[in-house]
Amino acid sequence: MMAKEKEWHPEIMYQDDSMVPFVEIPVDQDMPDKLFMWGYKHTGEVEPGPEGEDVPVCDTDIHLYIHYNTLKDAVDPALLDLIRVAVGLEPLASAKKKGEAITKRVLENIDGSQENSEG
Questions:
Q1: Are 81 and 92 contacting, i.e. CB atoms less than 8 angstroms apart?
Q2: Which residues, including other chains, have CB under 8 Å from residue 25's CB and lie 6 or more apart?
Q3: Average model confidence (pLDDT) for the chain?
């Protein structure tokens, strides 16, 4: 792990063509082990603002997101599987097996398309 000279606050960004956010990580930093994020949910109600204008009312809640590798390195496999299932993922062994099958099909398709283009 690289030495951290100053506190760094990651900026979460999105590309127009992807629903998966990304964080640009400076050369002297690492992806944080955890992120705290405020969630603001509009209630559909309004209240008067300082000038009498309608201001949306929001419920707020702070959320904690933990880097998966931090958990993977810190907890036993049975607990990790419980956490994975709790957030809607499959146990690791099952997910790994399915991932390997997908990779095998992709490689077979690549090999097949290369043979077709050569022949």
A1: yes
A2: 10, 31
A3: 90
